[in-house]
Amino acid sequence: MKFLTYATTLLGTLTAVVGAVPTRSGTKNKYIRDGPGPCHTPSNRACWASGFDIYTDYEVNTPNTGVTRKYTLTLTEEDNWTGPDGVVKEKIMLVNGKIMGPTIEANWGDWIEVNVINNLLTNGTSIHWHGIHQKGSNLHDGANGVTECPIPPNGGQRTYRFRAQQYGTSWYHSHFSAQYGNGIVGPIVIHGPASLPYDIDLGPFPLVDYYYKSADELVHHTQSNGPPFSDNVLFNGTGVHPQTGHGQYAKVTLTPGKRHRLRIINMSTENHFQVSLVGHQFTVIAADMVPVHSYNTDSLFLAVGQRYDVIIDASPTPGNYWFNVTFGGGFACGGSLNPHPAAIFHYEGAPDALPTNPGVTPRDHNCLDTLDLVPVVPRNVQVNQFVKKPENTLPVELSIGGTPLFVWKVNGSAIDVDWGNPVLQYVMDGNTSYRQADNIVEVNGVNQWTYWLIENDPNGAFSLPHPMHLHGHDFLIVGRSPDVPPGSNQRYNFDPATDIYRLRGQNPTRRDVAMLPAGGWLLLAFRTDNPGAWLLHCHIAWHVSGGLSVDFLERPDDLRNSIPQHDKDEFNRVCNEWRTYWPNNPYPKIDSGLKHRWVEESEWLVR
Ligand SMILES: [Cu+2]
């Protein structure tokens, strides 16, 4: 499409394109005419258009562009596929024929319509638009077993339609078991105002852990073993094999003297990354899809699913610089068999060469994300309203010793969705006899702040940090247990007598993924302003596969009464097709169904 502002080559070396953010003049392209006003310039990115700027609360006010951006994502699978670092993978899944799907791109206020065609052979699918609030469009959230039945394979399809009410950087991924780890991912960019000026938008920079085994084999493995190190790390879909040297470093071109916006996205299944750019600082302007007051840092910790929009000032001596990924927390939140995962930031005009300065290892973030982000549009809550009760406490526990060996439970129950009978079926039928394994937490009250205390097995022998992701909302991070390294023996229960003073209600960090510390607690708040069935889950694919999720059923009566007839019809059509397909599926369901099994038939024959 003409309006795309990023060019990515096959397997994706990232290329800056002139005019990365559309301007009003100089073209007859519809995107640009309906896009930002003339006030949105390199020196004033805060302005967007008449009546809309960085201070506009997008949950209240969104431009009415009348534009719909249409995309088609076709999913396929291949055997014996040669990956970017030269290793042949037995199984891979592709979006539009590529390992990294196309960037879904729109302007703030546009509608986005994505037709998903499932040409996989035996797997269903559903595509989740991570971070998108889906206000009033819960049935387009793409959470199979919750908001829809999976789209059946061999040509099944459905169209997702939702509003770009927010703006910023995000990604889309399959929510069918661990399928996204087989390659069903891609970036989302919604153009809007920014909290700091910049000259050039470099576009999305997806980072992902990369494994030579299929995600399904890894789910099977992690049901009775610890998580394996990734075989490699890919930057914008490419990377170099640490031993053979096959493959190419991702290369990002900087223009000397210019300020560049980079949209860093962690699309991993398990690896949490510490990122740094030798010789440069990052100026952070947004976290997930929340613009923040800018601040400078030498390194950033990106939990699985998190994004940071940063400005990189190309003022150092022109040359080539390593963009490094390191691991912290004693590998409690991931590691890689590639000891030095990296990409190259190359200055225009400099010789094409490998960087020479390896840089210094950034400080250990200990698997914790920063709580010092200050959102531009504030949200304040009365933290003294918080009273710990069983109803607002979500204990996370690792259950060891059953079958499978490792099962993750919240509130004493591991989620295990029923693909053919999603939660929305219950809602539409007015049936409140939910299955225990749907892990429903019903939330009522209109536009009320609700508080959720997640306690990470403080009495267990063993605890790991978890990146918790909420659908349908951004949450406020109202509090967290004291920071200690994940390997520490320190355990923290929430103690109202002392911990109430740790809470922060005045415009705390707000985003859609936050770290739950090992052996500690996290207190989140969201407002009941979006009727829907919204998952709160760990974004480590192996853990949500193992059960680590609840399903907030927010205002079910309001939800039932607000579903458009067209959405009901499509829900029923896809479910009928899935229910016809499923009895003929050759592979059994072995996990929660949220993040299916896809292994060689021979493996089942030997069991
Ligand atoms: Cu987890």
Automatic annotation (TrEMBL):
Which Gene Ontology terms cover its molecular function?
A: copper ion binding; hydroquinone:oxygen oxidoreductase activity
Tree of life domain: Eukaryota
GO terms under biological process = lignin catabolic process
Catalysed reaction per UniProt?
4 hydroquinone + O2 = 4 benzosemiquinone + 2 H2O
Give yes or no: UniProt keyword NADP.
no
Q: Is NAD tagged as a keyword?
A: no
* EC number, as in UniProt: 1.10.3.2
Per the database record, which ranges form the Plastocyanin-like domain? Answer: 83-194, 205-350, 424-557
- Which coenzymes or cofactors are required? Cu cation
Signal peptide as annotated in the record = 1-19
InterPro entries reported for this sequence:
Cu-oxidase-like_N (IPR011707), Cu-oxidase_2nd (IPR001117), Cu-oxidase_C (IPR011706), Cu-oxidase_fam (IPR045087), Cu_oxidase_CS (IPR033138), Cu_oxidase_Cu_BS (IPR002355), Cupredoxin (IPR008972)
Which keywords, in A-to-Z order, does the entry hold? Copper, Disulfide bond, Glycoprotein, Lignin degradation, Metal-binding, Oxidoreductase, Signal
Q: What class of enzyme is it?
A: oxidoreductase
Q: What does this protein do?
A: Lignin degradation and detoxification of lignin-derived products.
Spell out the family assignment given in the record's similarity comment. Answer: Belongs to the multicopper oxidase family.
Q: What is this protein called?
A: laccase
